[in-house]
Amino acid sequence: MRSLLPILIGLLIVQGCSSYPAPVVSRQQPSSTRIDTHRVESGETLYSIAWRYDLSIAKLAEMNQLKQPYIISPGQVLSIRPDSSGALLKPAASSPRVDKPISAPSGKNAVVKVKPVKKTTGPKLSYNIQGPPWRSPVEGEIVETYNPQQLRKGLTFKAAGGSAVRSVAPGLVVYAGDGLRDYGKLIIIKHSEKLLSAYAHSQTLLVKEGDSVDHKRAISKLGAEGRLYFEIRKDGEPVNPKDYLK
Questions:
Q1: What domains can you pick out in the chain, each with its CATH number?
Q2: pLDDT digits (tens, 9 = 90+) for 216-240
Q3: Structure pTM?
Q4: DSSP state of 136
Q5: Which of 150, 156, 180, 232 could form a disulfide with 144 if both were Cys (CB 3.0 to 4.6 A apart)?
Q6: Euclidean distance between CA atoms 80 and 82, whole angstroms
Q7: What is the C-alpha to C-alpha distance for residues 185 and 102, in angstroms, rounded to an integer?
Q8: Of 198, 158, 195, which Cα lies nearest the Cα of 177?
């Protein structure tokens, strides 16, 4: 019996060693995917695309050689990285969009006319950071604060269900829709060449792209839960909204 004891101990040691996982260096690493381009979808604007990738509108326009009023078309491929393929810096669909008429004349020699989209850039907007603070977008309390380390790029407000949402300062609506994932129904307002504000998770949108707004005008209505997510970005970077709101 004693002669078997060393053999049993040796078997236990071998079995224990075989249960250890393979060294980290020998494990297969997941492949990383780098996104260099974005294909424009219906309803998107250059502002909403810049917002999606945390880019300044000026930088995104420069990378794609776009000039104001930043007209883009569904299916157009945009570069979202400074070192992307140079071929993408000259979008094939950079010419102005056209709207076809509801009906067109028929006949062999009929000529179909199209109406070019008006090139409007809206009023020149500016905001003096040293001036009066911006107003709160909704009457309610802040339930989630700005914390980039926890991926919270803005503030979450809790208000009464159906509350009106208003622009925090005069500006121009540059996006109104539901095309950005995780934002629900979203409005983006331009206050200057550097400052944008965003209002997410509304139930009803009351403005459209191109509208001029101020704090007197309701831009959306909240749902029954009364939650509003709000962001301010400067040159494409999220900043603490509390630094701007009174």
A1: 37-96 (3.10.350.10), 140-243 (2.70.70.10)
A2: 899 999 999 999 999 999 999 999 9
A3: 0.66
A4: P
A5: 156
A6: 7
A7: 29
A8: 198
